[in-house]
Specification:
The chain has 369 residues and is an alpha/beta fold. The chain contains 13 helices and twelve strands. It has an eight-stranded mixed β-sheet, sandwiched between helices. Strands 7-11 form a two-stranded parallel ribbon. A two-stranded antiparallel sheet has the order 10-12.
C-alpha cells in the first residue's frame, strides 16, 4: 500500500485545473522529514501562483491567485556562488522524496554537494492543501507547477550564494513534464526576466500527449535537455515525447532523446516492475495541446463538444476560469463518454544505481564544467 500510495504518478495530467474559488487548507510539508533524513537544508517559501492554463499566464490574470510554496534548499560548504539542481516531484507529492522505495531522490544529494552543487527539493502540493494528485489531478494543476519552476528559478537568482547561470532542473513523470517545460521560452518570457534560464534539464518519463504542452514549442536555446524514457513504459508513452523533442530540436532547441529498452515507468524505483491493474492510463484519449494563442487544441475540445459536455470553446474557457471544479467534472464525463480510459500499467524498474552515475555525470558536465 505504501508503494501504491506514492507511485500512481500521472493518472490524468490533462485535467489540470485549480480551485481558486475554494478555501485552501495547507498541508504540513514532508520536507521537514526530508531535512531530518538528509541531516541538512533550510526550509524556504517561494512566491508562486495558481494557474489553470497558459491563457491565464499570457493574459496576466494568473496574478489574481498568489500562493507561497515550500522548498528545501541546501548549499555545499563555503561561500559560493554555487550551481543549484532543482528537484521536482511527481503526482505522488513531496512525500516521495522521503520514501524507502525511491531512495534515488535522496541518494543523489551527497554526491551533488560533494561536487559543489546545491540542491533544492520543491514541494508543489502542500501549500495547495494537497498530499498527492494520483486520484484526482484537478487538486493541483500541472500548469501551476510549470509556473512554480520559474518562480523557484527567480527566487534562486536573487540569492548571492547562487550562480544564477548554472541552475538545473530534474524530475520524473509529472516532475518530468515540469522539467521539459522549463525549457519553454514563452513561459519564461511571461513570468520572469528574459535573462534567466535553466542551463540544463533532465526529465524522466513525462506525459507529453495529454499534458497541455505546446503543439509548437519555442525553446530557450541555452537550456540543454537530456530526456530519458523507458521503451517498455505503458503508463506514459515515449512516442509523443519523442515527437515533441524532435519539434524542440527543429525549432532551435537542444534535446538529447534517450529511450531505454526494457525500462518501465519509475525505473529509478527500488523494486522490480509490477503490474497494477487499477492504474488508469490515457494514451488512447485525444491529445491535448496548447496552441500558440493560448487556447486548447480543437481536436481535444471538439471531442468533448461532440459528447455534449461543452457547448462551445467560449463556454469551456468561461467555465475553466470561473468554476474549474465544474470544468473538471465535465472533462471527466467527456473522457468517459469517449471510452478512451484504459486500466493497468507496469511500475518500477530498480535501475536507480545503474542510472545514477551517468545522471551525476550529466550535472557535473553542465553545472560544474
Amino acid at each position: 500500500m505504501k508503494i501504491l500510495f506514492g507511485i500512481i504518478l500521472l493518472c490524468l495530467i490533462c485535467l489540470n485545473v485549480t480551485f481558486a474559488e475554494d478555501k485552501i487548507k495547507p498541508k504540513k510539508t514532508p520536507l521537514n522529514k526530508l531535512s531530518k533524513q538528509l541531516g541538512n537544508g533550510e526550509l524556504v517559501k517561494i512566491q508562486s501562483y495558481q494557474v489553470a492554463s497558459y491563457k491565464a499566464i499570457k493574459e496576466g490574470w494568473y496574478k489574481e491567485t498568489p500562493i507561497k510554496i515550500e522548498a528545501l534548499l541546501t548549499f555545499p560548504d563555503g561561500e559560493g556562488p554555487f550551481p543549484v539542481l532543482l528537484l521536482a516531484h511527481s503526482s505522488g507529492g513531496a512525500k516521495e522524496f522521503t520514501e524507502d522505495y525511491l531512495e534515488f531522490m535522496r541518494d543523489q544529494q551527497k554526491p551533488l554537494l560533494d561536487m559543489g552543487i546545491a540542491t533544492m527539493y520543491l514541494d508543489n502540493f502542500s501549500a495547495r492543501g494537497v498530499k498527492n494528485t494520483y486520484r484526482d489531478q484537478s487538486k493541483a494543476s500541472i500548469w501551476s507547477n510549470y509556473v512554480d519552476a520559474f518562480m523557484a528559478l527567480e527566487y534562486l537568482s536573487r540569492n548571492p550564494k547562487v550562480n544564477k547561470s548554472k541552475i538545473g532542473i530534474s524530475g520524473m513523470s509529472r516532475g518530468g513534464n515540469i522539467s521539459m517545460m522549463a525549457g519553454e521560452k514563452r513561459l519564461r518570457d511571461a513570468l520572469v526576466s528574459k535573462d534567466l534560464y535553466f542551463v540544463a534539464a533532465q526529465p524522466r518519463s513525462p506525459e507529453c500527449g495529454v499534458a497541455g504542452m505546446f503543439r509548437n514549442p519555442q525553446p530557450i536555446k541555452e537550456t540543454k535537455i537530456w530526456y530519458v524514457h523507458g521503451k517498455a513504459d505503458d503508463f506514459t508513452s515515449y512516442k509523443q515525447c519523442v515527437e515533441l523533442a524532435k519539434k524542440i530540436n527543429t525549432n532551435g532547441g537542444d534535446v538529447k532523446i534517450d529511450i531505454r529498452s526494457g525500462w518501465h515507468h519509475m525505473f529509478t524505483g527500488g523494486f522490480e516492475p509490477k503490474f497494477f491493474k487499477s492504474f488508469q492510463t490515457f494514451s488512447k484519449c485525444p491529445p491535448w495541446y496548447t496552441e500558440d494563442d493560448g487556447s486548447v487544441n480543437k481536436e481535444w475540445l471538439n471531442t468533448h463538444i461532440s459528447h455534449g459536455v461543452f457547448k462551445s470553446k467560449e463556454e469551456f474557457d468561461k467555465i475553466l476560469r470561473e468554476n474549474p471544479k465544474k470544468a473538471f467534472k465535465k472533462m471527466m464525463k467527456g473522457l468517459k463518454l469517449e471510452k478512451c480510459i484504459v486500466k493497468g500499467a507496469h511500475i518500477g524498474g530498480n535501475k536507480g544505481k545503474v542510472f545514477m552515475s551517468e545522471y551525476l555525470d550529466f550535472w557535473k558536465k553542465n553545472l560544474i564544467n
